[in-house]
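Quick one - inputs below.
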Amino acid sequence: MQFSTGGRLIHPIHELADILQKIVSDWLSKPNESGLDEAIDKTISEGFFEKSDVDHALNNLSLSVQRNEIIEWVFRNTDVQKSYSEIIIKNRTRKILCLHAGNLPLVGLQDMLAVLVSGVQYCGKVSRKDPYLIPSLLRYIQTQSSAFNIKFSLDIRDFRDELIEEWMFAGSEDSLESLKSTLEKNSVISTIHRSLIRIAHFSVAVIDQWDSKICADLIESIFRYGGKGCRSVAVVYSYFKLNELSKELIVESSKWIQQNGYPIRIAPAVQLRSAYNEAIGINQVQVGNALFQEGLVTIDDPGIIYWQPLINPNDVNSQFGHHLQQVYYVPVRNEIDFKFVDNLKFDTLQNAQSPPIWWQPDGIDVLKWILSK
Amino acid sequence: MMYQVEQNQIYKRYLDGLYSRDLILFGHPDLNFISSENIDPDKIPLLPVEAFRDAKVYAEGDKNHELEFRSSGTTTSIRSRHYVAFKSQYEAAIFNGFNYFYNLNDFVILAYTPGYIANPNSSLIWMLNALIGQDQTGMSRFLEVGMQIDEDVIQTILNSGKNLMLFGAAFGLIEMAENFPIKLPSDSIIMETGGMKTHRKEMTRDQMHKTLANGFGLQSDRIHSEYGMTELLSQAYSLGDYWFKTPPWMQISIRNRFNPMESMEAGQEGLIGVIDLANWASCPFILTGDLGVKRTDGAFQVLGRVNKHHLRGCNFLLEVD
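Output:
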């Protein structure tokens, strides 16, 4: 399964943004013709993701891949439009290998868009855990425009002997060395290479105020994608005690599960933890599929949420270091005036699962990384 | 098993919690199956080792414990505590376990344990003291930290006709091998007890054993390993091939890391569960945080600590067809 397109025209950024927006928009709005319907059907029927998560990812894609958003993303990373065209010309000979993780529907799409926008050849190793959605979009792009140079495959062996000099992946640092060595051994990447490695695993929320909207946003930030995304909340630092809010959280989670057609499926590891907490005497509340618990934080199963007393958000960074993706806060009528020392990791709770196109995994703007060479 | 349910309140409450969630029926309609004499070790519910950190895990009621061990606190700031009801039980596990694989009378034990001296409640130090105390010749001892092994000491051991066993945490032995290399008699054994997490370098077990073999002038099969922890009274030993073997009263059950109620087939990776009957007065059914794999003969390998936070977020794995 391997496709590529050949020569490309050079477009000013606003034209390129128009093209990209139109392709994505057509792919979404003409799903039968574009192949998206088939991709969704297979993704759902073969059990890769819940339908509501796929719908959410596609909806966020339609909102974020807009002409002006793309242009703003580029302008955040280049000084003037002219320099962008020069970069595109310079980048024609570059190739970047993107290794997509596949833990969420369309995860890695931002990497793909950044490579395409920068004029570099995209070499995508698509995950077998999300084998239909990204390929469907890539195929559609190939049929609609020759502006982009694309090669993708589900099989890493299709990139053998490519000796790609730049690559990016998101995953665990534990697997990095063996991954690098496998890629080098098969000449997928060159022994001298440049890489972008993202290893953040989870996010936290700081709640210093409470109402029904915050409750809904918190549940969304925890439940969306089964808690498996690095933007999913694993720890809540709250001004309020767990028992004070448990009823509202349970009601809101029931509503969320019903609205999203999610199955009630409490993972065995979560049930075991629940039994363990009972035995030890750790305060806990079962909220839908997730177990909210007090006690020592040991980030683990996506179904276990740690409820902690409120702390200054700036202290969260030092507690979790590079495993932390985002610290969410509620921006309105803050009772505590937090002075954020590192703006990169802060975002509003309502944005948790609907980030803009330029959000920064591990605090790194992928487009900036590509264009900085 | 019955004794644990009756005497260990934490374990009893844990089982009650599992049963109320219909988690451990295993074809048994109620808790009566635990009175059976033929319980499959792979089906015994294992208590997460964190229980020793979060509560007092003790099955001897009001009886005062005779020993109290605490973990080094390198993994979390809160230490695990193991209350040992009977000192004689730990001694029996240490000596019988060691003699199951070696003959203590054949060895002079030199212990090198930098870092552990600061923990007066270290079970490792207690075990080494016990082993050293059994040597009637007085040659067994703790080595001074940051010093080379005296060549005269080695010569004296050689002359005695005994074998040398250099026993210690991996990071300390590595530092000794790197800073004070010395050729030991060829039949010596280096016994590393793990514990690389505080070391300045990341190192695979293979690299570690090569460094130790080179630093002490030994064949790689003379580098042995001990698998033990504060929460266990018994030890498993690997005799130079990375496969740990247990004494008869200790068994390993590899569990599904996503559902520790399920055991894994031989050769499949999972969480290491330990059934250590020497732990009868605390809890003999423990789920560790270590990843491992077991052979059909019961021997097991330790593959490292499980990084639980990797269950969240992107986790790219190169699929191999």
